[in-house]
Amino acid sequence: MYSIFRRIFTPALYVLIFFTGFQTAYWWFLPRNTPEQNLPVLTTLAALCAVWLAYALAAAFIRRRQRQDEHAMKLERENVRPLLYAEMRYNREAPEKLLFAVCNQGKGAANNIRLNIEPQADSPAAATLFAALQDLPLTKGMAQLAAGEDYAEMFGDIRTLLDGLNGQAFDGTLKVVFAYDNIFGEAQTSETVLDLALLNGLAAALQPKPRRTFNIF
Q1: Please, which of 113, 173, 202, 214 could form a disulfide with 142 given CB 3.0 to 4.6 Å?
Q2: pLDDT for 110-133, tens place per residue?
Q3: Start-end of H helices in the chain
Q4: What is the pTM of this model?
Q5: What is the mean pLDDT of residues 98-117?
Q6: Are the CB atoms for 27 and 45 separated by under 8 Å?
């Protein structure tokens, strides 16, 4: 708004400045006439000064209003900013089934979601889980995820994954990088590092417990 105001009125202001200087020089080099004879010149100078003052006040008001609007827009964008993160969880109905979930803990919807998964450590567990996640439709992206919502897909059985590791424990990390747009179409990013060692606790809980035997005699 302020730039438009300057682009429109600045050329006219330059003309007024030139005219003011011309009138000032004319009045300065005039013979000392009576006030009645100098009245038209003084009136012109007063009018030009009034125009200059009006321009300065209008420019200051518009600049202040623009700053207030920018501040309000910034606050509005912060209030609707999405924030995505990833997590691995188990299925409550079938704890051996692992889910990969994308969650939005921000205050606004995320649109045009893209994600990239990268193994952060050279470990068989990270490579195995990375390969399993590549088959999920979720890893190809999402159209939208509203604020406070999450979306999960099953990607494997923890017992099957353990069998593929030949008795080794889960270790290493996976880095999930998100790229998405807020409701204003502005690009934003976030990332999550998944610690695969946390799956060892779930694997241990799913191991069958040995039965106790009691000798009666």
Answers
A1: 113
A2: 999 999 999 887 788 888 888 889
A3: 2-29, 35-79, 124-133, 158-164, 199-206
A4: 0.61
A5: 92
A6: yes
Quote the mean pLDDT of the chain: 78
Report the alpha-carbon distance of residue 43 to residue 20 in Å, rounded.
11
| Cβ within 8 Å of residue 99, ≥6 positions away | 88, 89, 90, 91, 152, 153, 154, 155
Q: Is 90 exceeded by the pLDDT of residue 100?
A: yes
Diameter over CA atoms, the chain: 139
- Residues 91, 125, single domain; the answer is yes
pLDDT digits (tens, 9 = 90+) for 179-203: 999 888 889 999 999 998 888 877 6
Contact 8, 62 (CB under 8 A): no
Is 155 within 8 Å of 140 (Cβ atoms)?
Answer: no
Domain count, the chain: 2
Q: Domain ends where: 79, 96, 126?
A: 79
From start to end of 141-186, where are the E strands?
Answer: 142-145, 150-157, 173-181
pLDDT at residue 61, rounded to an integer: 81
Q: Which of 79, 98, 114 is the last residue of a domain?
A: 79
> 140: which DSSP letter?
G
The percent of residues above 90 in pLDDT, for the chain, comes to: 21
Q: What is the DSSP letter of 30?
A: S
CA–CA separation, 41 and 51 (whole Å): 15
- Other Cβ atoms less than 10 A from the Cβ of 62: the count is 16
